[in-house]
Amino acid sequence: MRAVDELIGLLGAAHVLTGADTGPYVTDWRGRYSGRPLAVVRPGSVHELADVVKWCAARGVPMIPQGGNTGLCGGATPDETGRALLVVLTRLNAIRAVDTGNDTMVVEAGCTLQAVQQAAHDADRLFPLSLAAEGSCTIGGNLATNAGGTQVLRYGTARELVLGLEVVTPQGEIWNGLRGLRKDNTGYDLRNLYIGSEGTLGFITAATLKLFPRPVAQCTALLALPSIEAAVAMLARARKGFSAALTAYELIAANCLQAVVECFPEQRLPFDDAARAAPWFALLELSDSESEAHARERFEAVIGDALEAGLVSDAAIAASATQSRALWRLRESIPLAEKAYGKNVKHDISVPASRMAEFVATTNAALQAAHPGVEHVIFGHLGDGNLHYNVACGTAYTEEALLARQSEIHALVHDRVHAFGGSISAEHGIGQLKRDYLPRYKDAVELDLMRRIKAALDPQGIMNPGKVLPG
């Protein structure tokens, strides 16, 4: 094929894949979306990528950016036409610079999140973005979806951890915006335009990231709770008692942890039988800049008061880093346990924390009325109002029967989210999965502005077509 030969001329045969060799790249992590690309290309530098983009722009060839392929909304998967070029950025994986004086680092888009965290650690700094997929997800993908994770409560989403970007435009131009400045009022904020755009406006190829001091001490606890109302009240107490030192607060339904210990028998819940029967759990973490003793004193005082007040029925406080990792492993294993049990109907939603209990109770009731017997699989980042509100087969449905009701379930849940002043996408993006829901929930003027931005930056419509914006 002439097109493939020309691409080989740009990148070399080892980095232009066709046929069966494209297999690892063409299906999303959940197995929901699969496509057929013209080819998979793996540029090794920003200039090679720019050459590929110019080649595509000259021929009107669509381009699909992909990092670690861990996305959950089909945002990095080609369609079935065989026209699009799937552009994998994992070879752009250099840590270009670490500046401890400015508390910044410049990294390329193909670096795994774990590699970035390690580079920061090696420099005695912290890069706080933390996700279950951090060993395989890439910084480019994290920024393309404005990833959240477990420490948004203290440090914010990916967008808030970035000072500058390098971007290849849909025309093959290279924008060098890697300035490591915390104040720069020289025009439009292009950085924030590209972050969260899911590759529909250009290729993020590198970023200047913020670094933070590493905490002197961390304390972790798993709390057994009688209700979501108690979890919200405990969050308020933790915020008052710990202030900015509260770095994580995760809400977990009991059936999620039960699924983890059933799928992974080496993991255990650190409670007696009475506490294991609690309907809800919270995993919270304090990061202290003073001392281990200071952290432990604050931690035990706040949790002790909550136990006395009846907000918490039991608490397992990690006594070591090993025990802390074990508690976090329980939380991080929930998506793997979900996957082991089969497909379910997933929702990545946000609702004001103050209304979370009412939202869950009323939405659960509405789902049971419409689809009796479904199972509610609920966990997420209560500290920033983000829940993974998933609906599983339970004992009433087969996987096929549940997925046949998927559109109805999505509509019901999303309508409820909208009624509560929430968002149908908190941290996973839009991709293909939620693209066609946007007109129902997004302001028409806002959606039109998004279309105009897309048309201005990508007039050919070749950057990740079919994602984010409805047709």
From TrEMBL:
State the family named in the UniProt similarity comment for this chain: Belongs to the FAD-binding oxidoreductase/transferase type 4 family.
Is Flavoprotein found in the keyword set? Answer: yes
- Cross-referenced PANTHER family, in alphabetical order? BLL6224 PROTEIN, D-2-HYDROXYGLUTARATE DEHYDROGENASE, MITOCHONDRIAL
Under what name is this protein listed?
FAD-binding oxidoreductase
Q: Which UniProt keywords apply?
A: FAD, Flavoprotein
Which InterPro entries does the UniProt entry name for this protein? FAD-bd_oxidored_4_C, FAD-bd_PCMH, FAD-bd_PCMH-like_sf, FAD-bd_PCMH_sub2, FAD-linked_Oxase-like_C, FAD-oxidored/transferase_4, Oxid_FAD_bind_N, Vanillyl_alc_oxidase_C-sub2
Query: Known PROSITE patterns for this protein?
Result: FAD_PCMH
In this protein, which residues make up the domain named FAD-binding PCMH-type? 33-214
Q: Which Pfam families match?
A: FAD-oxidase_C, FAD_binding_4
